[in-house]
């Protein structure tokens, strides 16, 4: 179990245009003033763009961890296909904010 976080969220939100992977989709006008309570709670506080932001800013770390785990899976005789199932809640902001991007990334990492 590993916790993903965004260190320095205030700084990132103030300089969101410096993040080319984020600036085109992150609704900075709507989320520029995220409350202090939301920043201190685990998860994305039901704010989907924050879930996606966590994934985007942590993609290299997630990719490294995923590929390491994938390579540890035992290979059966004759090979075969490894199926990856992504399970998350779509009711909050963390899982619902990142599941689609994560699915595309997993497909990329397994090909």
Report on the structure:
It is elongated and about 55 Å long. The protein is built from 5 helices and no strands. It has helices at 9-14, 28-31, 36-40, 48-72, 94-110. With 111 residues, it is mainly α.
List keywords for this structure.
111 residues; mainly alpha; 5 helices; elongated
Which bin fits the share of residues in helices?
40-55%
Shape descriptor reads elongated
Low-confidence stretches: none
Summing up helix and strand content along with how strands pair, one would put the structural category as mainly alpha
What kind of oligomer do you see? single chain
* Sheet having the most strands: none
Structure annotation, total helices: 5
Q: Kindly state the mean pLDDT as a whole number?
A: 81
- What is the first-to-last residue Cα distance? 25 Å
Based on CA atoms alone, the radius of gyration comes out at 16 Å
One letter per element, helices H and strands E, the order comes to HHHHH
Total number of β-strand segments? 0
User: Beta-strand percentage?
Assistant: under 5%
Lay out the secondary structure.
Blueprint lengths: L8 H6 L13 H4 L4 H5 L7 H25 L21 H17 L1
What is this entry, summarized?
The protein is mainly α and 111 residues long. It has 5 helices and no strands.
């Amino acid at each position: 179990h590993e916790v993903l976080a965004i260190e320095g969220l205030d700084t990132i939100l103030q300089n969101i245009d410096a993040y080319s992977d984020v600036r085109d989709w992150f609704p900075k006008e709507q989320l520029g003033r995220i409350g202090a309570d939301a920043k201190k709670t685990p998860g994305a506080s039901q704010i989907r763009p924050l879930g996606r932001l966590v994934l985007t800013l942590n993609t290299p770390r997630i990719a490294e961890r995923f590929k390491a785990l994938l390579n540890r899976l035992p290979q059966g005789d004759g090979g075969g296909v490894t199926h990856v199932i992504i399970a998350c809640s779509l009711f909050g902001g963390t899982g619902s904010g990142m599941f689609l991007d994560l699915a595309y990334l997993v497909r990329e990492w397994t090909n």
